[in-house]
Structure to design on (489 residues):
């Protein structure tokens, strides 16, 4: 697995999120158990302290009237001079209570209102007393719990002020926290292990699933690596994959299809170009071979050279048209659009067309309205569009026939209709007329010179102006070209 792969990043992201959730969850559990354990321990300590207080109260009742209860108690518990039998009874009571309360291991300290220790259990040594610390004013008046620890001991202590009649005492009981810590330690260990095991398990499973779901990417990559210009027909099978992958594969296939189409056009175009240039080159070669074949008169040489010049001119025209077409199709920035008057442009074209029609004695009429129709156009290219269509009409119709050019506006569209009374074009040829290098084949020898690119250029220019060219024709009756352009409002 690579470090900069989606799979690695997804696995890391999921693991981090999952780890955060698990740690949070573990902390909540740990915290709750911690609180519950301390709460229970505090409750237990309180019960013990209250019981100790009630034992003290019992001493007071037993000894009431005879002496001060604390003095009696001290006397009972500590005095060298107490009657042995009474001391024994009280000690027995005390001992049995200690047993009931499980106080044996606890540290007990009972203080008077001034914070002086009146009584403490045997295990309440100087070290423990130091740990408990001197009594503060709040120790003598308020119930509270505290935790202490040193190197050997961890204690939880309750501080419970009690009143026995006139006397105010404070009962302090300290008990070991070891149980709590051992439970918490085991719980912490368990949670840590559980989180680690769970994380390892889920990241393994997650990594497996991401690998499975990213498998189609590998297929796309393999396929992309395999595809060359020779097998653009290959497609990635759109089998059952996730929606995103399906989209990716579909886009990829559509892209290859587009490439295939473009590549088809390019190779078709190349073979056309080669063919178009091969014929005139062969003619040139033939002419030159013929000239070299035998001695010629200067007039004959002149004829050969002028024929060659004609062929070369044709080739230059083909190359120029091809260069223009390449620009029209792939360089939309060559157009310099501006707000122009189509009416004025048509007037200009009418003038030039009449001059062109003159030698063939073709009648060309223009029906241009006085209304100023304005379009957003590149004047130079739009002029070329109309010249190509009108030039064709003049070129392909017979002498004496007519061409009629009219301009109309219909809503947001204007139409320039170029209708001739010429030979017309068959339905089949009409379908190909806008294709590059297409020329209607003539059986006789009357083929006019041309490149077969004029109408293709015209259509490209119309498209660049958001317009269109339509053609209708009837064999023997004539052809009508209609150029549609959007009008500027
Ligand atoms: N008005 C027309 N009448 C009859 N045939 C036409 C007319 N205009 C075009 N054509 C046919 O369409 C073909 C393609 O025209 P074009 O693309 O301009 O190429 P070119 O004029 O160089 O041959 C022409 O060769 C011609 O056969
Ligand atoms: Mg032409």
């Amino acid at each position: 697995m690579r470090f900069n792969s989606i799979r690695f990043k997804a696995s890391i992201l999921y693991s981090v999120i999952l780890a955060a959730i698990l740690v949070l969850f573990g902390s909540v559990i740990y915290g709750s158990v911690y609180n519950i354990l301390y709460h229970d321990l505090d409750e237990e300590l309180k019960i013990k302290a209250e019981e100790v207080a009630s034992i003290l109260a019992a001493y007071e009742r037993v000894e009431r009237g005879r002496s001060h209860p604390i003095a009696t108690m001290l006397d009972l518990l500590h005095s060298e001079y107490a009657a042995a039998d009474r001391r024994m009874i009280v000690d027995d009571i005390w001992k049995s209570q200690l047993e009931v309360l499980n106080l044996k291991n606890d540290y007990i300290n009972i203080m008077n209102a001034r914070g002086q220790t009146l009584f403490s259990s045997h295990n309440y040594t100087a070290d423990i007393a130091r740990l408990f610390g001197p009594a503060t004013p709040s120790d003598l008046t308020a119930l509270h719990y505290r935790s202490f620890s040193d190197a050997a001991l961890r204690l939880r202590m309750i501080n419970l002020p009690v009143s026995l009649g006139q006397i105010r005492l404070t009962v302090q009981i300290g008990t070991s926290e070891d149980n709590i810590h051992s439970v918490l330690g085991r719980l912490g260990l368990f949670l840590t292990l559980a989180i680690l095991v769970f994380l390892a398990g889920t990241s393994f499973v997650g990594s497996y699933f991401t690998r499975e779901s990213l498998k189609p990417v590998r297929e796309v990559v393999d396929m992309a690596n395999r595809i060359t210009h020779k097998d653009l027909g290959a497609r990635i099978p759109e089998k059952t994959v996730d929606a995103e992958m399906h989209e990716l594969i579909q886009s990829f296939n559509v892209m290859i299809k587009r490439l295939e189409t473009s590549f088809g056009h390019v190779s078709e175009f190349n073979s056309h170009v080669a063919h178009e240039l091969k014929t005139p080159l062969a003619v040139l070669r033939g002419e030159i071979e013929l000239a070299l074949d035998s001695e010629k008169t200067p007039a004959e040489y002149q004829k050969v050279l002028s024929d060659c010049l004609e062929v070369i001119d044709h080739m230059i025209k083909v190359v120029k048209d091809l260069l223009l077409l390449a620009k029209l199709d792939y360089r939309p920035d060559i157009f310099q659009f501006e707000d122009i008057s189509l009416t004025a442009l048509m007037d200009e074209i009418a003038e030039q067309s009449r001059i062109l029609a003159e030698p063939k004695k073709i009648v060309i009429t223009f029906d241009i309205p006085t209304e100023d129709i304005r379009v957003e156009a590149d004047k130079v290219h739009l002029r070329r569009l109309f010249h190509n269509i009108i030039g064709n009409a003049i070129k392909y119709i017979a002498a004496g026939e007519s061409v009629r050019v009219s301009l109309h506006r219909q809503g947001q569209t204007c139409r320039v209709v170029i209708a001739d009374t010429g030979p017309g074009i068959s339905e089949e040829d009409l379908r190909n007329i806008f294709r590059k290098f297409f020329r209607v084949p003539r059986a006789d020898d009357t083929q006019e010179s041309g490149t077969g690119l004029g109408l293709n250029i015209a259509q490209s220019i119309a498209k660049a102006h958001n317009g269109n060219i339509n053609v209708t024709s009837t064999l023997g009756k004539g052809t009508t070209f209609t150029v549609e352009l959007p009008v500027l409002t």
In short: The domain at 243-327 is CATH 1.10.287.130 (Helix Hairpins).
